[in-house]
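pinging the channel bc i need a second pair of eyes. not urgent but kinda urgent?? the chain im working w is below, pasted from the shared doc
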Amino acid sequence: MNALALTRRDARIPTPGPTPVIQTGRLTLRPHRLSDADAMTESLSDFAVTRMLARVPVPYDRQDALDWLIPQTSGLGTDWALAITERDDVHIGMVGIDLRHGRWHLGYWLNRYYWRRGIMGEAVAATLERFARRMPDVVVHSGVFADNQASLKLQQKLGFEITGCAEIYSFARNTMVPHIETVLKPGALRLSRAA
């Protein structure tokens, strides 16, 4: 067991359990596999995608994908990192809920060629619904870069509230970027408006 998992267990922080497989009308959300490396590299090599993410380096190569995938596929973590796939099981994006500094955080991204189809709304709503069933009293934090209005609109449809604005460093942009902080309180998830 890794040190992070031991720290979380020792601190008695409740966890949502292992990463589930979630089926929606069009999608399968599943744990990542090492075989997802090539598809992830293709998606995250696109600056249109990575410019909206804080912690993804540019350029992004296959070794970056493997460096992220190896601990994710080890089975030791307590965070959820769900691969978004369609019927062909090809990795097209990711929804994750991870514990950082004692708070649960939602993050997500999608290959640009799948934008504007409602896929991200479907994937995020399904993930949050399952997480809320396992962790009903937990606040989920998130946020978006100020120039990512589509993502902010999605979060607001789901019930997230804006709590403030800060600047955070974006590896892809190599600069500080205005970031709108959001929070989803227990019981505030609105599934019917996500589609």
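so Residues 1-10 have pLDDT under 50 and may be disordered. and Residues 3-184 form a domain with the Aminopeptidase fold (CATH 3.40.630.30). — does that match what u expected or am i reading it wrong
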